[in-house]
Amino acid sequence: MRSNSLLLSFLSVALAASATAAPAPADLLAIRVGRAETVSHGAIEHAVLLVEDGVIVAVGADLPVERGIPVLDRPEWTVMPGLVLPYSRLGLDGRAGAEFNPEVSPAAEILPRSEDYEDVLEFGITTLGIYPPGNGVPGQALALRPKGDSLKEMLIEEGVYLKLYFRADARSKKMVKDAWAKVDEYDEKVAKAKEKWTKDQEKSKSSKKPAEGEKKDDEKPAEKPAEKSAESSKGAAKAFVPPPPDDKVKPFLRVRDGKLLPLVSISQSADWAHWLDAIGERKFDFALRVVMQRDLDLYEVQEEIAKRGCMLVMEPEISYQVGTMRQRNLPAEFANAGAKVVLIPRGEELDAHEAWRRDVGELVKYGLSREAALASMTLNGAALMGLDKQFGSLEKGKVANLLFLNGDPLEPATQVVAVMLDGQIVHGEVRQ
Amino acid sequence: MKNRSNSSPARAAAFLVAALMLQGAAFAQEAGAEAQGEDADASAKKNDEGDWFAVVGGDVYTGTGAVLRGATVLSRGGTIRKIGHDIEVPSDAKVLDASGLRVYPGLVALNARGVANRLGGSDYADTFDPYSQNLVLALAAGITTVSESGVAIKLKRREVKGVVVRERYLSTLNYTSNNPRSKSELEQKFEAASKYLREYRDYEEQKKTNKELKEPSARGVDPTIRAILENRSMARFNSTTRTDLLGIARLAQKYKFRPIVEGATEAWTVADELGRAGAYAVIVPRTRRDKSEELLRAGGSSIENAALLHRSGVQVAIQATSTFVDLGGIAGRDILHLPIEAGFAVRGGLPEQAALEGITIVPARILGVEHRVGSLEVGKDCDLIVLDGDLLHYQALVQYTVVDGKLVYEKDKELYYAHIRPRPTALPADAPDARRDKGEEASDAKEEGEETSGDEKPEDEPEEKPKEPEDKPEDGSEDGR
C-alpha cells in the first residue's frame, strides 16, 4: 500500500497543481444517463453524476456541467451503484470443520488476479465480502475490491463481520454460552486488575488519585506486565491499562461493544428460538444468514426478527409453507415487515452470480418492492459490512463504483454495458 | 374369571371413594406429588405472578371423574388457580369462551417419536423445535405432553424454555423367556437390591441404640434396581406374552414394586395377577395377535384387554399403533388418533372415564409427572383442550389447545382442520340447546336407575301432546294452564 499511496500523493499534488492552472482537473468526469437508481434516494430521470478522484461529488437531475469537463453522455443507459456481495466464498474452497476460531481471517486464502474476480466485476459486482469457511465460529470476513495485483491493493477492510454458525443443539448452544462466559471471565479479570491497580496507586502515592481508567473501551493493552513492574517503581503516573484479552475473547469483546457484527447462520425457526435462549439477556446487534430451502418455516418468527432489527442474508428464492404447496416469498415478507434484507447469488458458481440480478428481479414480480430489491444487492450488503458510508448508493461522497445497464436493472433482458470501479471504467467500451 | 368378578365391586367402590374425594376437595393432589416436587419452577409458579387465563362456560371434564357444566377454569402463570362456578375472572385475564364446548385435560402420549424432537439428538431442552409441523398437529390432536425416549416433554409452542418436565424416570428392563439368562440375572439383581435395602433399614433402626454398627455395603447393588425399589424410578417392561407378563407380575409382587408393562397383548389372560402387582399396562387396543397354537390356555389379543385389566385394578394407559405423526399409509392409527384408539378400548368394555384416564392421568403417572399434568385440578399446569363433542367420539375435533395457560392451537386459525365443521356459533338464548341436552344425557349415564323412570315420560308425552293444540285456543295463554 505504501508504494501506492506514494503514487497517489504524487498524483494529487500534480492534480492540485493542474487545478490551479486549468478550470477542469484531470480526474473529473460528468456522467449523463437516462436514469439513475440511487438506491438511497429513489430513481432520478435524466441524471447527471459528477465523479472526482474516484468519488461521487454530485448527483442530480439535469445538473449543469461546466465546460471543459469530459462528459459521458448515454441517455439510453441506466446507472446504479456497483453491486455489493457481502457473503461469498468466490473461488475458494468451502470445506472446514466446526471449530471455535473467532480470530481467523480468510486473508491468507485470497488469490489476487484470480479470473473469478475479473468475471464477477463484469457482472457489476464491485465489492465482495469473503468469509472464512467452516461451521462453529470460523472467523471474521473481509471486504475486497475485486481488482488488484496484491491483497493489499484489493483489501478494503478486515473484520467486517464475525461468522457464526448456529443450530438448535446442545453443542452450538454451549459454544455460544462459553464464548460469552469467557467475556465475563475477562471482565472479571479486568475488574480485579483494576482493583489491584487502584490499591497500588493509593499505596504508592496517596495524594495523587487517578482520574478514570475505562476498562471496556481500551483495546490496546500492549505492555501490561512491563507496566506492572514499572508501576510499583515509578508510582502512579500512568493510566490503568487492562490485561490483554485472549485472541479468542477479543472478537466477542468487540461484538459486545458493537464494533463487530456477528452474522449468525440459522436454517429454521427452532434455531432462532434456541439462539435467543442461548444469548439470554445479552444485548448486542447481530445479523442472520438464512439458508434458503424448499420448506422453510421462518415465517413463524418473521415479526420477531424484524422487530429486533436484524439484517438478513438470504438467497433470492421462493420457498414453501412447510408441508404444503403454498409458495411464500420470504425475502419480500421480511422486507415488508421492516427487516433489511441482503440477497446473494443462489450459488457459488459464476452462472449464479450472473443470474443474481435476474433472480432478485424475479422476486419483485412476486411482491418484493423495487427499492428493497435494489438495496438488497447494494446498500444493505454494504451496511452488513459496516461500509455503507463508502459503498452501496449513488450519493455525494461515496466511492464511484458504478454499474451501467441498457435498461431496468431488475428486468431479465437487461445487460451490463459498463462497470466503473473507483472512478475507472473496468469493463465495457466507453468513448466520451 | 372368578377373581375378576370378585374384584369388580371392590374396584368400583374404590373408584367412587376416589371420585368423591377429588370432587369434594379440589386441592386433593395425586399421591406422591409432594415426593416428586423436585422441580423448582413448580414452586416458583406458586408466586402471584404471570398472566391470568380463563376458559369460561365449557363443560369441564376434570379427568378425576367430576364434570362441571358451564364452569370456569382460571389459571395464572400457567397454573390452575380455580375451577368451578361463579368464579370471578380478573379484568386483565385472557378469556376463552368455551360455551357449548367440552373442556378436557390435555392428553399425554407415551413413547412419541418425532413430535418434540424433530431435529434429532438426545438433549431435548436444546433440540426442541417449538415451531414444527408435527408439534402443531399433535396439539391439534389434543396432545399437550409427550414422552420421547422416556423424557416427559411439554408441547410448548413458540418457546423453548421449560419444555422438559421430567427425565430418566423410567428404567427399561429386559425380562423375557426368550432369554432365560438375563431373566435370572434380573431376578438376582432384585434379590440383591432388596436384601441390601432390608439390611439398610435394619441398620437405620439399630443405629439409634448401637452407634458402632457398620453401614451395609452397597457394593454389587444395581443402582437402577435400587432406584426402582426405592420408588425413585419405575420399571418398564416390554412384553406381550402371557408367560412373560405372569413372570413380571410375580416378580413385582415379590419385590413390591409397580411394574409398567408395555405391549401387554395377552395381559387380559393374567389380569388378576397384574392387578395384584399394582401394574400399569400400556396397551394398543387395536393390536392383533394370534393365540399360540401349542398352548391350550387362553391367549392372543382381545378387544376386551383394556376392560379386563381395568376391572382387575390395573391402570391402563392407551397408546396408538404408531407413535409417529404418520400421515401416510396407516393414517388413523398414528399418534394423532389417540382418543380414537381409546375409543376402541371403550368398544371392548372399558368405562369411558377409564378410557379418558388412559390417555391423561395414567400416562402422566407412568412418567412421574402426574403432579403437573393429566387432570384439571387446582395447582396443576393449565394444559387443557376444548372440543366440540365427546373426546372419545370419532367426530369430535379439538377446537382449542392450551398449554401452560397459553392458547397454542386454535382450529379455525390453522391450516389443518379449519375448513371442517367450523366452530358452531352461539345459539340464540331462547333456542333449545339440543347439543347440550344430549351431552347431559350421555354423561349422566351413572344415574341410569333413576333415569329409566324419567325416560318413560317422553314416551307418554306424544300421547298428551295432540291435546295441547286443542287446549290452546280455549285458554288463550299457556300461563293459564
If you had to describe this structure to a student in words, what would you say it looks like?
The complex is a heterodimer of chains A (432) and B (481). With 432 residues, chain A is an alpha/beta fold. Chain A folds into two domains: 1-82 and 393-432, Urease, subunit C, domain 1, CATH 2.30.40; 83-173 and 250-391, Metal-dependent hydrolases (TIM Barrel). Chain A has helices at 2-21, 115-122, 151-154, 170-204, 224-234, 250-256, 269-279, 302-308, 330-336, 350-365, 370-376, 379-384; strands at residues 28-37, 43-52, 55-61, 71-81, 83-88, 98-100, 125-130, 135-137, 139-144, 155-165, 262-266, 287-290, 311-314, 319-320, 327-328, 340-343, 402-405, 416-421, 424-427. The model of chain A is unreliable at 1-24 and 209-236 (pLDDT under 50). By secondary structure, chain B is an alpha/beta fold. Helix content of chain B is 34%, strand content 18%. Chain B has helices at 2-24, 40-45, 124-127, 133-140, 180-207, 223-229, 242-255, 271-276, 305-311, 338-347, 352-358, 361-366, 434-443, 448-464, 467-475, and strands at residues 52-61, 67-76, 79-84, 94-97, 102-105, 107-109, 143-148, 151-154, 164-166, 170-173, 234-239, 260-263, 280-283, 315-318, 384-387, 398-403, 406-410. In chain B, helix 7 links the parallel strand 11 and strand 12. In chain B, helix 10 (338-347) runs antiparallel to helix 11. The longest helix of chain B is centred in the middle third of the chain and has 28 residues, at 180-207. Chain B is globular and about 75 Å long. Mean pLDDT of chain B is 82; it is low at 1-45 and 438-481. The A-B interface holds A 167-170, 173, 268-270, 273-274, 277, 297, 300-301, 321-324 and B 118-119, 121, 123, 126-133, 158-161, 415.
